[in-house]
Design a protein that fits this description.
heterodimer, A: 11 strands, about 50% strand, B: mainly beta, about 0% helix
């Protein structure tokens, strides 16, 4: 158990809908990272928050947004869903803001299926 | 951001020592080298991290030559449960452009 909790574990929704994925980082970790993993794209970095502030942005679509709350949990919002958004979404956390020797801890992921 | 290159896949047999290499020709002075393991439908798991020479922990060893342009993850006496994707990452975290970037990884298949 990495200490990172993601909910829900599975989510099935229809195209055009909006969903929210939740992540609780390890106790004491200030950074949260979101990743998308699909069969043909591998692990794609989406966005990072550190202590409530956006720290880095990767290949995140405009239809997607995220935030980190004062209690440090994070939510990833996916809207106007398309079939191609079906993937595993992982959250990771680290104690620091992300440095050369950061060790990140990953949750078990949320499997999103868009039908 | 230093880019890594790994073979796509490799096969091994139970009980063998497995050495997985990673090339990172553009590694920066302050970059560390980190390896993660991922099982199907699970999140990646940290295995080992090093800066130079050799690092060993309870599950693996990491060998880094003096020029640091490559690294080798060594798994002693693999078992079927070591079948997974292994990712090599270098640095990539600094200031406003910080992010953890995973490459394609290498799929290790351990056979009986």
């Amino acid at each position: 158990d990495s200490g990172v909790t993601q909910t829900p574990k599975h989510l099935i929704t229809a195209t055009g809908q909006r969903v929210t994925l939740r992540c609780s980082p390890r106790s004491g970790d200030l950074s949260v990272y979101w990743y998308q993993q699909s069969l043909d794209q591998g692990l794609q970095f989406l966005i990072q928050y550190y202590n409530g502030e956006e720290r880095a942005k990767g290949n995140i679509l405009e239809r997607f947004s995220a935030q980190q709350f004062p209690d440090l949990h994070s939510e990833l919002n996916l809207s106007s869903l398309e079939l191609g958004d079906s993937a595993l979404y992982f959250c990771a956390s680290s104690v620091d803001a992300g440095g050369a020797n950061t060790e990140a801890f990953f949750g078990q992921g949320t499997r999103l299926t868009v039908v | 951001l230093a880019k890594t290159t790994q073979p796509i896949s490799m096969d091994s047999y139970e009980g063998q020592e497995v050495n997985i290499t990673c090339s990172h020709n553009n590694i920066a002075t302050n970059d560390y080298i980190t390896w993660y393991q991922q099982f199907p439908s699970q999140g990646p798991r940290f295995i080992i991290q090093g800066y130079k020479t050799k690092v060993t922990n309870e599950v693996a060893s990491l060998f880094i030559p003096a020029d640091r342009k490559s690294s080798t993850l060594s798994l002693p006496r693999v078992s079927l449960s070591d079948t997974a994707v292994y990712y090599c990452l270098v640095g990539g975290l600094s200031g406003a452009n910080s992010k953890l970037t995973f490459g394609k990884g290498i799929t290790l298949s351990v056979r009986p």
